[in-house]
Design brief:
By secondary structure, the chain is an alpha/beta fold. The protein has 5 helices and 7 strands, in the order ββαββαβαβαβα. The protein has one domain: Rossmann fold, CATH 3.40.50. Bound molecules: guanosine-5'-triphosphate and magnesium ion (MG).
């Protein structure tokens, strides 16, 4: 699948401002600094469509991008960033959860996890919450360029075993790098195939 066009639609700070839910939508979620915005840029072949930063907490609104005039990619604020005041953090989490629960055209949530980290409670709790609420989820490991293939294999197997402690079956899993483009083709194919479901 080829990305021909990718444009910024809007940023929203509350749920009354969401775009019409009339096309398939795919959201990217995960801890601050995990690489959500970078991956969206890589997928769309644009350097600065989604704003990235070395400082965690860069994305503070729900940002919508329109790809090939067919579906939305959604860049969400990161969770688990300690330096944001508690009130702000709670506001983000509330916004995030309400968006995820109420969006009828949301086809998949991509939960991003830094491949170098062993399972962390924020991620596993969030995964659990998505499952409990029947929100379709895929796991996307990021920053694969930082490790060898052998190391990645071991870490992914560990993670899978961890997930299977509380899940009957594994969600789709992707191994990506926004630096090298690893996993880009697989993720785009998955998105375009899943988007087809919306039409039927
Ligand atoms: P917030 O918006 O703060 O929640 O962060 P984010 O998840 O959107 O992360 P962002 O894309 O801004 O990336 C954070 C940092 O990680 C930046 O310095 C990126 O350059 C770096 N980064 C992101 N993806 C990769 C990757 O695949 N490989 C490497 N080596 N660095 C990456
Ligand atoms: Mg971001």
């Amino acid at each position: 699948m080829t990305v021909n066009t990718a444009t910024f639609v809007k940023s929203v700070a509350d749920l009354t401002q969401l775009p019409e839910p009339n096309i398939p939508e795919f959201a990217f979620i995960g801890r601050s600094n995990v690489g959500k915005s970078s991956l969206i840029n890589k997928l769309t072949n644009q350097k600065q469509l989604a704003k990235t930063s070395e400082t965690p907490g860069k994305t503070q609104l729900i940002n919508f991008f329109l790809v090939n005039k067919q579906w939305h990619l959604v860049d969400l604020p990161g969770y688990g960033y300690a330096k944001v005041p508690v009130e702000v953090k709670e506001k983000w989490v509330h916004l995030l959860r309400q968006y995820l629960l109420k969006r009828p055209n949301l086809l998949t949530v991509f939960l991003l996890i830094d491949i170098r980290h062993s399972p962390m409670s924020h991620d596993t709790e969030f995964l659990q919450w998505l499952g409990e609420n029947d929100i379709p989820v895929s796991i996307v490991f990021t920053k694969a360029d930082k490790l060898s293939a052998a190391k990645i294999k071991i870490l992914v197997e560990n993670y899978q075993a961890h997930i299977l402690q509380s899940w009957d079956q594994l969600p789709p899993i992707f191994i990506t790098s926004a630096t090298t483009g690893k996993g880009r083709t697989e993720l785009l194919s998955y998105i375009s195939e899943t988007a087809e479901i919306f039409k039927t």
